[in-house]
Amino acid sequence: MITLLPARLKLLHFPRSHLAHVTHAIVKTCVFEDTRAPDYFFSFTENAYEVSIVASESTIDHDFLPFLTGTEDSGTSSDIYRVLQVDDEGGQDASGKRISDLSEPLAQSKFSIFYMSTYQTDFVLIKERRLRQAMQTLLDHGFQIDEDSLSLVDSLLFPTASHTSSAASSTIHANLSSESLVSTDTGSTQPEHGDPEEEEDDEGSGGVDIESSVLPNELRCAGLNPHCRSSWAMTVLKILSYPELIQQDPTSHRFFSYTATNEGISLIADEVMLELFEEQALFQDEDSVPLRVIQVNLAGSNLDRCGIVRSISQPLAAEAHINLLYLSTFKTANILVSADDIERAEEILTPDLEKMRDMLSQVVLEPLQ
């Protein structure tokens, strides 16, 4: 089942060296905001290449950006993103197939997506101006979408329309025809890219460097017990904002991801970090396996590029039957597979990364409408 969440989000990235600049914003967002509000959403991911933040539009614009003004190698999305929550009975054991199945029709229809696997569920971020088209695509390919979400997207993008009855909401699928799709785009474009249509004309011949690295650390995906917040809140803040207090080698690269909504909190971290938490504070599956992460630097922002999630998940999950978790960040793709599968996954992805380099060289961009 796919559910549209009420959160309206923006994306932000900056180098790890700038982490101290936004400590106040992180503390405010994690501790002092109402984490039980229906529209609460905050995600922090740090890898070898960047720190990537996903948060509400107001949080990014008012709490983070003022402290990053003028800093190099940082940026934010000009688009607003909406969140589709993907719940599946298969859970993490079927996450690879789920990622592949969801990303394929969206890639074929030229949607750029931002995918986030977490302990509780999966999230697919879609640009708000193309939300209605994306939901139609998923409906057309047999995915179940919560009926209230269908009504919600219609009322959000067309606030004068009234869809209060169940009979009205049941007809939305039929009404989402290509002729009736209306864009809410205000004409803004990514500052990192300029106008996508212009880019297709003048950048198609340029080469694109794609760098990948495999972290030696073994990682786990776990949940945080919200009833034990007082016992783990300070630990989370240290990990997010003061890594030098807990990291033995501050010069080494780490991978850490924290995603919180009003329904749950997810961590992806190595064993050293997880040992900082009390046992009762963590939710962990007894049969969970250690994970390794392949980090792929996509040579700049990937927010407008279509087919990246599919080009990675399809050969692993659909063809080689390797299960995976996937985390998009502003500039990178992070593929998490069982430690036992890491060598095979690397072998499979190597030629596909070459194909992706060719794809990015041709500037496969999401259309404005």
TrEMBL record:
InterPro entries: ACT-like_dom_sf, CASTOR_ACT_dom, CASTOR_mTORC1. Residues 77-138, 292-350 form the CASTOR ACT domain. SUPFAM superfamilies: ACT-like. Residues 195-204 have a biased composition (Acidic residues). One of its GO terms (biological process) is carboxylic acid biosynthetic process. It comes from the Eukaryota. Residues 178-210 are annotated as: Disordered. Residues 178-191 have a biased composition (Polar residues). PANTHER family: CASTOR ACT DOMAIN-CONTAINING PROTEIN (PTHR31131:SF6), CHROMOSOME 1, WHOLE GENOME SHOTGUN SEQUENCE (PTHR31131). This is CASTOR ACT domain-containing protein. It comes from Syncephalastrum racemosum (Filamentous fungus).
